[in-house]
Design brief:
Chain lengths: 336, 470
C-alpha cells in the first residue's frame, strides 16, 4: 500500500483500517485536504473526501445527513434550494472543506444562532473505529438521550478517535436579512461599550467580534432575522458607533479557523464577556475576540505558547476508541 | 460483619454526624423515583455537603467494593436513581449552594443539589435564566439534570442541558476529583446517567430573559391534524421557544384540575410560544398562525395577559398531576420521532394502547418530536401493568422505526436497558461500554443501568404510583 489512500465508501475504509490494524500500521486522516499530508514510511494518509454525497435533507425537520467527505460547498448549494443553510460558517474561503472535517476539527467559525458551535449542531454520526468496526452514534432527530453522547467526543477529535463517515446535523432557515455593523474605536472604553451594547440587545447577534485596526479596535456585529427586527437593532446600536458596513468575515473567519496545535504562534483562551480587551496578554497586537463564544485568538511569540496537557480522563477515552494508538499519531486531542 | 453494617460504620468514620442513614425506615424514602414502579433499596444513604465528603464516600465504597448510585431529587422517570444493586445511595440534597452567579459573564457555578427553579429565581434578579426547564424543575436538581441531559418545553429553541454546561467537577469511582472543561469530556459526562462518577459542581450558562414573549393556543378537531400542524410550524423555519401538544384525555384531566382554559371539545391543543426581540416575534407570528390554520386549527388565539399565559403553562405542566385524579396508575413513556412523522406516531401510539385495552393520554414536546404517551392503569392489576409494559415497548419500537430515539429526556436508566439494542448495534454498545470503563473501570457507579443485563428491564412493581413529571 502506498503512502496515501482515498477510500470510496465506508466498507473500503473499514477494510483499510482493519488491514492497518493487522499490520500494526498507523493512519492519519484528512478531510478536504486543508490539512492533508501524505503518509510517510509506516504512516498511511487516508483522505476522506471520496466518501461523499448528501444522503438526506429533511428541511421540514431542520435536519440533514451527509457523508463526511461531502464539501460544504455542495451542502450549501443543496440547502439553499430548499431555503435552508448550514448553521455555521466555519471556513469562508474553503470550498474544499468537508462537512466531516468541520466536525472533526470543531471548526466553529464565528457565527451561529445563540452562539451555537459545531458541538451543538452535530446530532448523529457513523464512524469507523481503528480496528475497522463501524459504529453509529447519536440520532437523526434533534433530541435524544439514548446512550452516551459520543457525538460530543467526535467533535474536535481531529481524527484521533475514529474516522467519521457520515454526519447528521441541524440546519436552519435562511434569515430574511443579514447585516453587518462595524465600528472602529480609538479607546478601549468605547469599544467595550459597543461590545456590551451589541451583546445585550434583544435581537441576539449571530456574531460579535473585536479585532485590531491600525487606529484602534474594530468591532463587527452580524445581525440576522426578520427585516424589521434587524433594522431596529441597527438603529439602537447606531448610537454606540456601530454602522452598516461591509464586514470582512472571510479574513476574520480564516483567523479563527487556524488550529493552535499546528499554528505555533497562536494561543486560544477563554475570554471574559465583560471588558474582554483588558484580558488580552500585554502587547498583543494581532488578536480576535469571539465575544459570543467567550474565546480569544491571540498571535503570540511561539515560545510563550503553553502546550496544553491532555487530561488523563480524555486520554483514557481515546484509548477506549483506539487502544493501539493507530489513528493520528502525534496529533493533539482535546479542546484548544 | 455483613457488608451493609461494615459499610455504614466505615462511612460514619469519615463523614460528619447525621450524614449516614441506614435504618430501614430512613432508607425507604429513597427506594423509588417519580415513576414509582421500580423500587430498589440501598444499604446505606449518605448525604454529603462537600466535594471532599463525596470523595471520602467513594473511597470507602471502593474499599468495600460497594456500588454507588447518585440521586438528586428523585424526580427521574427511568429508574436511574434507584439502588437496585444495594450499596451506597449518595443524595446530593445537602449540596445545594449556588457557589457564585456572575451576571456580567452570564454564568453560574452551582453544587449539584441546587434545584433548577431556584437557580432560575436567582438568575431572574439579573434579567437572566437557566434555559433547560424540565417539567420537574420546581423539584429537580442541576446534578440530576446533568446526569439525564434534561430537556423541557423551552429547549426547542435554546437547546438541552448539554448546550448550557460549561464546566464540571466530577469525582470518579477511585475517589479522584477531576475539574473538567474539555468539550469532549463535558459532552460525554452530561447524560451519562451517573455511570461515570458523581458531579460535585457545575458551571452553567445563563441566557437573557427575552424582550418579548407571545403564547398561542390552537385547538384541533383531530389529533392527527395537531400533529400535522406541528410539522407545518417547524417547516416554516421559525423555531418557536416551545411547541407543546396535549390530546383530549390530557385536556380533560387538566381542565378539571386547574381550569387552564383549554377547550374540552377539542381532540388536541397546541401551545406555541414565540420569544425574542419584539419585532422578531411580531414577524414570526404570521407564518406560524398561517401554518396552524392551514393544518386545520379550528381556533388559534394569543394569551391576552401574563395571567392567561401563566394559566396555560400551569395546565401544561400539571398534566401528570391532573391524571392522578382519573387514574391511580400512570406509566409515562418518552420517545422521539422526526416532527414530520409526529401525526402518524400519535395515531399509531393511540392504536397500540387501544389494542392492549389501555387508556392513554399524550403530551408532547412536539416541536422536538418528543412524545410522552401516558398509559393509565389500575395499580393492583398485574395483568394491566404487564399490558402497559408491552404497549410501552411497542411505542418505543415505533419511535426507532420512524427514525427517532428511545428517549428524548428521561434517559435509559433501568427501565429501557434491554431496549438499547433497538437503537444501537452491538459494536456501538461495545464502544459505550469501553467509554464507561474509561471513567469507571470498576463498574460500580450506578450498576444495572443503561446497558442490557439480559435479565429484562427493571421489573414493574405494584406500588401505588404518584404522578410523574413530563
Amino acid at each position: 500500500m502506498t503512502g496515501a489512500f482515498q477510500p470510496r465508501n465506508e466498507a473500503e475504509l473499514g477494510d483499510t483500517l482493519r488491514g492497518c490494524a493487522a499490520e500494526g500500521r498507523r493512519v492519519r486522516l484528512s478531510g478536504g485536504g486543508l490539512v492533508a499530508k501524505k503518509g510517510e514510511g509506516e504512516l498511511l494518509g487516508v483522505w476522506m473526501f471520496g466518501i461523499s454525497g448528501v444522503v438526506e435533507i429533511r428541511e421540514g425537520d431542520l435536519v440533514a445527513t451527509a457523508r463526511a467527505g461531502t464539501s460544504l460547498f455542495e451542502i450549501a448549494a443543496e440547502l439553499q434550494e430548499r431555503g435552508r443553510r448550514f448553521p455555521l460558517r466555519p471556513y469562508d474561503a474553503g470550498d474544499r472543506a468537508t462537512v466531516g472535517g468541520v466536525f472533526a476539527a470543531a471548526a466553529d467559525g464565528l457565527s451561529g444562532r445563540l452562539g451555537f458551535r459545531a458541538r451543538d449542531v452535530l446530532l448523529g454520526a457513523r464512524a469507523v473505529l481503528a480496528g475497522g468496526a463501524v459504529v453509529a452514534v447519536g440520532a437523526k432527530v434533534v433530541k435524544s438521550v439514548a446512550g452516551f453522547d459520543v457525538c460530543k467526543a467526535l467533535v474536535g477529535s481531529r481524527g484521533c478517535l475514529a474516522a467519521i463517515t457520515e454526519v447528521t446535523f441541524r440546519i436552519e432557515a435562511i434569515p430574511e436579512v443579514s447585516t453587518t455593523l462595524t465600528g472602529v474605536f480609538d479607546d478601549r472604553a468605547a469599544a467595550h461599550a459597543a461590545l456590551a451594547a451589541a451583546g445585550s440587545i434583544a435581537l441576539q447577534p449571530s456574531a460579535l467580534v473585536a479585532s485590531p485596526q491600525e487606529d484602534g479596535v474594530r468591532v463587527d456585529v452580524l445581525l440576522e432575522g426578520p427585516r424589521a427586527a434587524v433594522a431596529e437593532a441597527a438603529r439602537l446600536l447606531a448610537s454606540k458607533g456601530l454602522a452598516a458596513g461591509e464586514g470582512d468575515w472571510a479574513t476574520l473567519t480564516a483567523f479563527a479557523a487556524l488550529d493552535p496545535r499546528t499554528s505555533l504562534a497562536l494561543a486560544v483562551s477563554p475570554s471574559p464577556r465583560a471588558a474582554p480587551l483588558d484580558a488580552l496578554p500585554p502587547g498583543a497586537e494581532l488578536y480576535l475576540i469571539d465575544v459570543l463564544r467567550g474565546r480569544s485568538y491571540v498571535h503570540v511569540p511561539p515560545a510563550s505558547v503553553k502546550k496544553r496537557e491532555t487530561p488523563p480522563l480524555l486520554e483514557r477515552v481515546r484509548q477506549a476508541f483506539d487502544p493501539k494508538g493507530t489513528l493520528a499519531p502525534g496529533r493533539g486531542i482535546g479542546s484548544t | 460483619m455483613p457488608r451493609a453494617t461494615s459499610l455504614a460504620a466505615a462511612l460514619r468514620g469519615v463523614l460528619p454526624e447525621g450524614a449516614v442513614l441506614d435504618r430501614q425506615d430512613e432508607r425507604r424514602v429513597y427506594e423509588s423515583d417519580a415513576q414509582t414502579l421500580h423500587p430498589g433499596s440501598a444499604d446505606v444513604i449518605v448525604l454529603p455537603r462537600t466535594t471532599d465528603e463525596v470523595a471520602a464516600t467513594l473511597r470507602v465504597a471502593a474499599e468495600h467494593g460497594a456500588p454507588v448510585v447518585a440521586r438528586g431529587a428523585g424526580t427521574g422517570l427511568s429508574g436511574g436513581a434507584i439502588a437496585t444493586a444495594g450499596g451506597v445511595l449518595l443524595s446530593t440534597a445537602r449540596m445545594n449552594r449556588i457557589v457564585r452567579l456572575d451576571p456580567a459573564e452570564r454564568r453560574a457555578r452551582v453544587q449539584p443539589g441546587v434545584v433548577n427553579a431556584r437557580l432560575n429565581e436567582a438568575a431572574a434578579a439579573h434579567g437572566l435564566r437557566y434555559a433547560p426547564d424540565p417539567s420537574s424543575q420546581a423539584a429537580s436538581t442541576i446534578g440530576g439534570n446533568v446526569a439525564e441531559n434534561s430537556g423541557g418545553p423551552h429547549t426547542l429553541r435554546l437547546g438541552v442541558t448539554t448546550n448550557h454546561v460549561l464546566g464540571l467537577e466530577l469525582v470518579t469511582s477511585d475517589a479522584r476529583v477531576h475539574r473538567i472543561d474539555d468539550d469532549a469530556l463535558l459532552g460525554l459526562v452530561v447524560g451519562s446517567e451517573g455511570l461515570f462518577g458523581i458531579v460535585t459542581e457545575a458551571d452553567v450558562r445563563l441566557v437573557p430573559v427575552p424582550e418579548s414573549i407571545r403564547t398561542f393556543l390552537a385547538s384541533f378537531r383531530a389529533l392527527e391534524d395537531a400533529g400535522l400542524a406541528v410539522a407545518a410550524v417547524i417547516a416554516t423555519g421559525v423555531v418557536p421557544a416551545a411547541l407543546e401538544l396535549m390530546d383530549r384525555l390530557a385536556i380533560e384531566a387538566v381542565e378539571e384540575h386547574v381550569h387552564a382554559g383549554f377547550p374540552t371539545d377539542a381532540a388536541a391543543v397546541l401551545l406555541v410560544e414565540l420569544e425574542g426581540a419584539k419585532d422578531e416575534v411580531s414577524a414570526q407570528e404570521g407564518p406560524v398562525l398561517a401554518a396552524l390554520r392551514g393544518a386545520g386549527a379550528i381556533d388559534a388565539r394569543a394569551a391576552k395577559s401574563e395571567d392567561e399565559r401563566a394559566r396555560m403553562w400551569k395546565g401544561r405542566k400539571q398534566v401528570a398531576g391532573a391524571l392522578g385524579r382519573i387514574s391511580k396508575g400512570c406509566y409515562s413513556h418518552d420517545g422521539v420521532v422526526p416532527p414530520s412523522r409526529l401525526a402518524q406516531a400519535l395515531t399509531r401510539s393511540h392504536a397500540i394502547a387501544e389494542k392492549h385495552g389501555l387508556r392513554v393520554a399524550t403530551v408532547c414536546h412536539a416541536g422536538d418530536g418528543n412524545l410522552h404517551p401516558l398509559l393509565l392503569f389500575a395499580t393492583k392489576d398485574a395483568d394491566e401493568i404487564a399490558r402497559c409494559a408491552a404497549a410501552g415497548r411497542e411505542i418505543l419500537e415505533m419511535c426507532v422505526d420512524f427514525g427517532g430515539s428511545l428517549t428524548g429526556e428521561h434517559g435509559i436508566g433501568g427501565e429501557k436497558r434491554e431496549l438499547l439494542g433497538l437503537q444501537y448495534d452491538p459494536a456501538t454498545i461495545d464502544l459505550f461500554r469501553r467509554i464507561r470503563d474509561a471513567f469507571d473501570p470498576s463498574g460500580r457507579m450506578n450498576p444495572e443501568k443503561v446497558f442490557p443485563t439480559g435479565t429484562g428491564g427493571l421489573p414493574l412493581g405494584e406500588k401505588t404510583p404518584r404522578a410523574g413529571w413530563l
